[in-house]
What we know:
15 strands, binds N~2~-(3-carboxypropanoyl)-L-arginine, three-stranded mixed sheet, 450 residues, alpha/beta
Amino acid sequence: xxxxxVNFDGLVGATHNYAGLSYGNVASAASKGRSSNPKExxxxxLRKMQHMRELGLTQGVLPPHQRPxxxxxxxxxxxxxxIHILTKxxxxxxxxxxxxxxxxxxxxxxxxxxxxxxDTRDGKTHFTPANLAAMxxxxxxxxxxxxxxxxxxxxxxxxxxxPHIPGGIHMGDEGAANHNRFCSDYGNSGVAVFVYGRExxxxxxxxQFPGRQTKESCRAVLTxxxxxxxxxxxxxxxxxxxxxxxxxxxxxxxxxxxxxFFHEEAFENTSSLCADIQTAMGQVPMEFIEVPANExxxxxxxxxxxxxxxxxxAPAREGMTLILPSEAQDNVATREYIQRLLEKDNSISxxxxxxxxxxxxxxxxxxxxxxxxxxxxxxxxxxGSRSILTDDxxxxxxxxxxxxxxxxxxxxxxxDPQLMMENFAALDELTQILDLGSIYDFQxxxxxxx
Length: 450
Ligand code: SUG
């Protein structure tokens, strides 16, 4: 039976805006106060998804969450109608409303950690929504993420859904963005490499920016998923990379099957990491493509998101393809590096560039926008929603965006009740398009839950 790695991309939400919320994320800070274009952002994301299909890959879609997140405002004591709550909350704290209006759920690499059925003891695929405890605006994501994943992967014989890891920032977990899976082919057993920024109970005086992922949370997810200890590796991200703005490891490394493409300064101890991966992989030869700092500096890696590319095996092509943001083409150092890479004798033979500027300005590149899930044909048949992209679904989603999304959102628009009502109407329609059921609390008439 065919086993594929399916990318589930997050749709950019109708409240996509630049509020500069993510400390340690250079692009988010630099974009603070800019006007955003949610319609353009959503269409840019959809074009990338459609391109993946044109390459012969199966592509999935994940919906945005409800924003502003009224359940949090209610939990904080605001009462009354939705419009009253929003108005009062904005009068009290525009920053609070900005945090609860972020469209950060588009970066689905942070939605969850997924361990494929071929790597778990019970032969089922395991999901843990990321708690995203490090950033307030993202800490409100896991309950809805879990609800969406359960609606999509709804077959108990095949899929296991765990609660997010409790414990706040001590147990900070940012999901698949810090997880690399190596294998000879997607359906064969793999090796999981988790990258953390700090330890839960120690000091990390070498960090200027938050180390969002802790070693203990990586261990907890692996324990939940019952991964065998010889198939897992934990490694610390280089503090230098975090301090340069690589707040997730997927800003400095990416992998596909047995190929690992990473920056020289990505990890604390690169040579022992590579040796450990090769040992765990046994007979399967690894291909390590290490990019020297004197060819691409950490600062160029962070500003262009060279490593936040998707590395894919497209059935329509010989060799692997990098899906890159256009920033990596505009920068001389990364453009020339990519040219040399494609000419060299290695598994990477193609580079496709995409304009994802709406997302990139908030620090989200091609790889941030996707959650990888290894699925066999029967898993795809067992899915409980219309979440796999087809030409029809692509058409429906483009029309939906054209109908509901604004071309401009300023930070002060986040107090506009009309924007909130437009978004709820759009999301209500989206759940019908994607056949997801009532996943949003405004559809459930249950305001005390998420
Ligand atoms: O968590 N940006 C996201 C970007 C996430 C990128 N994901 C991966 N690397 N996988 C973050 O920092 C900015 C939102 C704002 O500033 O409004 C934001 O949340």
